[in-house]
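Hi F.,

I've been meaning to write this up properly since the lab meeting, where we talked about keeping a consistent format for the predictions we share between groups. The idea is simple: the sequence comes first, exactly as it goes in, then the structure tokens exactly as they come out, then a line or two of notes. No screenshots and no reformatting. I'm using this chain as the first example so we have something concrete to point to.
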Amino acid sequence: CPPSWFTCARGGCIEESKVCDFSPYCSHGEDEDRCRKNHFTKRAASLQCFLSLFLASECDFEDGSCGWYELTPGDGFDWIRGSSDKVPPDYYGHPPLPDHTTNSTKGHYMFILRNSSSLHPNAVLIGPWFQQSASGCTMTFWHYNSGVSVGAADMYLRFKGVQNKTVIWTTLYDQGRRWNRVTIQLGRITQPFQIALAKISLGVFDGVSAFDDVSFKNCSMPPPVAVCPEHTHFHCVHTRACVEHLRLCDLVDDCGDGSDEEGCSPEIQCDFEDGLCNWKQETSGGDVFNWTRIQGPTPTRNTGPWKDHTLGNTSGHYLYIESSLPQEFKDTAVLLSPIFEPTYQPGKDPPFPPHHRCAFRFHYCMFGSHVFSLAVYLRTTTTGRGVLLWAKYGNQGNLWHRKTMYLHSAHPFQILIEGTVGDDFEGDIAIDDLSFLDCQLFHGELPSPITPPLTTPAPTAIPNNCPEGQFVCGTHSECVLLSQVCDFKQDCSDGSDETNCVKERCNFEGGVSCGWTVVSPSFSVNHVFRWAADQGESSHNGEQNHRPTNDHTLNSPKGWYMYADSSNGGYGQFSDLQTPVISSTAPQCTLIFWYHMSGFTVGTLQVLFRHKNLTHVVWSQTGNQGNGWKRAEVFLGLSNDFQVVFRAKRGISYMGDVVIDDVSFRDCSPVLPSGQPCTSEEFACANSHCIPQDNLCDFINHCGDNSDEDPFICKGFSGRCNFEFDLCSWRQCRQDDFDWLIKAGSTPTLGTGPSSDHTLRDPTGHYLYLESSFPQAVGDAARVIGPLLSRRSSQCKMRFYYHMSGDGIGTLSVFAKTEESLHLLLNLTGDQGNYWQMKELQLSSSADFQVVFEGKVGRSEKGDICLDDITFSPGCLLSPTVLVTDRFCPPGASVCGKGSCYTPEQMCDFTDDCSDGTDEEDCGTSCSFENGRCGWKSSLADNFDWALGTGSLQSIRPPYDHTLMDDNGHFVYLEATPVGLKGDKAHIRSSVWKESSAVCKLSFWYYLSHKATGTIRLLIKVERVLVETRRKKLIAVVPLRNLRNFEVIFEGIRSRDVSGGAALDDLEYIDCAPSAVEPGRCPAATDFVCESGHCIESHLVCDNKADCADESDEKDCDYIFGSPGACGFNMEDDRWEQVCQLSQDPDDDFDWRIGHKTETGVGPQSDHSPDGGGNFLYIHSATQREGDVAKVTTTNPFPASIGLCHLRFWFFMYGSPKMGTLKVYTVGANGTPLLMWATTGNHGNQWTYANVVLSNTKDFRVTFQAEVGGDMWTDIALDDISYTAECVVGGPLTPQPLTCDADQFQCTHSFQCIPKTWWCDGSPDCADQSDEERCPTALPGTVPPQGDCPDENFQCSDLRCLPALLRCDGVYDCPNGEDEHSCREFMVPLLFGNIYCVSLRHFVIINVYMGGGINMKKSLMYLRMNTWGKKGTHQQTHSLGETKNESINLQHKVELGDSDLQMYKEEFKIPLRNQQGEKLEVEKYELSFRFL
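Output, unedited:
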């Protein structure tokens, strides 16, 4: 063979360039076998030589190192070939490592052995030399890198004669105890190269690094052939290989001799080695930034290629887009090709010729976790993108990919390559080796696009005669009210009143929005995140998991939906899809829609309710909800003039769109009154609407006027609770793991819980919820127990609303609990949908029972379970209360601490009836908080509570209490909490006080921190009194005059996030115990004044029960039985119905009777009259079956009234533990009964008093219904039925307001007139003492005499002493407010405050003293003075000089200089920091003025 040629074993000569090129030319492949030898030594031909061909391209190291060797052997840190059984078992503390090939400790691999203490050891494993590789060449190997200090590894290409290395792979640190597969793209390499694997240790190497099973695929060049297919392939000139026609002139030497790249036009090729060639950057504003030309890897790790495609090393060039700053998400870079001739002529050439079709080829790399998109467009005009030909999205791996596309255009055209930035810096995109084949350049310019002119028709007004303020229908002479426009009901005959409104149902088919309008904030001109209609078939590759392929309506890719494309915009941006204003809806109006939220970083979908300027969230969902459609409901109810808004918020990246479909408004068209009377199954609303009885008292305004939810109408619905303030009659169970909580707004954990409650449907509404996050554990249970219901309940139903949404939802169970059993009624597990749902359960039991709600924590924190609006039907009866009393006290009474007794009426009445305070101790009494809270209770509905504590100098609470004035004293305060938000509220409340006197006052001391000012409000029932705040500890006095059945509530409000900053101490009720009064001084104008002078409520008069101590309320009461239905039953047996104006019900089971005793002997032994000689009304149960009913009803109706009419009667229910029930109904003209009162059980051997408020929206009759119990001893009796006068007139009986004469003074809070000469005479004459309030002093312009108080104090007219700081501060601190009188002449210094003066002076002398300052030196002091006069406002600033010491004593004289001054104001200000920038603190401060 010629010199330098390779000699095959059987003769034959091979060129040196063909040795080690992955292609065997020798018959046994020995030309490739020599690649295993480091120095190309020859060896004899044999069968083993033939097999060794594959050992160079595939090596498992079982029979040798395959030509791989350590570069610097013997330096103590080397790659060696070995197996686990040859490695010491304690090597690096790692267990024996099996090889990858055989997965056994006998198998071989290359690994690092260290036996040197060198600080910078370096091990480099070098592979065989290869002459070249084909364009599809890849290398695959398995790598093991595990250990706490195993270090990094790099793999790189080495080229002969080239110093620079090209890194093709790297790994960092511990990759876990496993073999990891690695594939590297080598591509076309045209010069000799070898692979090197370098391992570097920084002095500490602890671990195992190994290398096994290396292989090279598709690396050999195409073999020579005799003949190639004529039309599809090119026959290489020298190598005689066949190459596809599309591989010609593509800047890649596929032949191996370069003949496929000869004769090509360089004008239509570009490898970017010498610039952009004929390609240009977009400069006409069609993109945001430019492509960048670069060598080697891009600047950002983990993104972009590591080498170019042309040369396959770091010397080659390519273009890429840089996704780091200043680029933003969705910014684009556009590259423009030269302009080409049309590819065919219409009518002459076929658009797709079989041969010589214009083709565009390029290579691209899209590597990085935030890669977005690369697109190719074809345009035929000078502007715009044109037609999208191809697009690729997302990470495509660290590889160069080849793309070929055929181009078709009947006009001159240009190719655009657009790269789009992802939403983070790991999003670089690269292109290289752009080439065209069979395309001809066009020598000219593209035309500009032609835009046809737009003509807008002039608007035409419809002729009409409609009054102003009405809507003009499309049909001539038709008008409707504006309130009827957009109400889901066509009131115009042509439906034009609903034309420009949102449609009742919308599936978005055809891209129709159905009246929904897109509104997006203008965050950016480019790439706005916004709602748009689209189809699933338009989704591109990579979007399959980000938005649905099929819509919900048709379940087809051709179906439409509305979606917010997260490919646009930035994190947190939002877009609104909103309705026009909806004028009105029906009570049951519900928004229903389907949503799809899939993707790793999908954002948030919210439904907003917008009324005028108020907007709040009523539904929300956040995060990935799975790749499927989900249903949602939002209850809207009866509303007016509002909009519904779908708000989509973008997540942190483009991976996840927000999609909705099939949006509908169910039952939203307002129902008009039918004009027909309501049926017996309907409730007649006050506005004449009729609603089903089942809709009564369910916390939804079905009537439209709330008459169906009036508390008086709903009195028969026991156990109702909407959790707005507390748990109502529900109680936490003590035998569970944690408690249910009351919450307003959304729950703390994202992705679970509702956005608002069900009752109010706004952020202020409350509901009951189970918090499933830490510290709760999976399976923990919380239980809440309802009131005790009677076994006599019939047709008893419980209705409630629940919300169970989240991927970690546990279980909600409902039980009926008796003393002996627990019966499961309902079990719900898992996600039930992100909306409030109603559930109704039938309840019955053979024993008294309670309903128990049990919530169990699920598998994750996204598992909050919520309850709201629990109601029991009128058929659910409360079990009679078992009174546990001391044996020495009468029934119903309680024992005092000293052994005496008190009744419920004596509790919380401001009178110590027990003489030891027992009857008042839990009422929320006067309190210093030294011994607890004195009965003041926190609300369960608050986010935080008033805390009981002591003073602290390190906190925003007061440093000391007010009672003891030291840090051991107690007070209640708003505590700062880590999760507190501005606006959070905390309440403490008293019990219900019976009545207050005409002079009752509440005084209290409050504190507001200057560090974190909170707000305190005092709420009395529903009347709010806002106490003016000051940043000192001050006293407030609030009148509580003539109140009845009231609560006192202190509300604390955070003024800043996290903070508290407010405290209360020394609450004191002053003169609040009711006492004898004169007429006109009772709490209510309608009150009855006993002869003793005490007041009682009017409905207690003549009720056959003495409420006045002198029994004067029961005198002269014969008139009471003149009312319809009022009766004492003292008449002949056959005349009671006529005389009493009562009638038996013909449809009941049996009749009532009258008599002076019952047949069974278990009823009353006498009637209720004092002498016991009269009759009573009763049922005889012995002859009836259990459950039989007897009804008696008033003959004449009472006029409609709500909350005014009182029914009083006495009943007797005694004799058996199986006693039946007694109920009172009001029955309207349509026959619908409304339960007003019910009782059951054994009430003892006595007559029991009942006082029932009767209500009905229509004229009504009163029905007494008795139901037979479980045996013959269940007789029920009635006596002395009476009604108040309000029942007869149907309205309140209020005396006319008192009118005083001109020479008299009208008392403010009592119906009382006194002579004007008694006003402000120093002696209170009004019962409420209002004649001595806000009085001028004896000499106008002066203040009360001073001298009895210490210095620096102000003396009130009642001799009370106040700090002088409170003088003239705008707050009345003296009882009569005299501390605020004559303030325009009185001068008092206020710290950093103001001074006022009315008298004219020419000079003022200011004396200033400050002591104990920190860093006071070199502080600039100045006086700022504002003056007001006829000439306007003038401001002067006077420097007081620079301080030199730690204290200041200055005197300064100021000339006023304005003869027309009427008032001046001076502000003395101190800078917060001195000239050194240090914080300035002052401990003592004095300021005085003297006028000249």
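Notes:
Residues 730 and 786 are 4 Å apart (CA to CA).
The chain has a mean pLDDT of 81.

If this format works for you, I'll send the rest the same way.

G.
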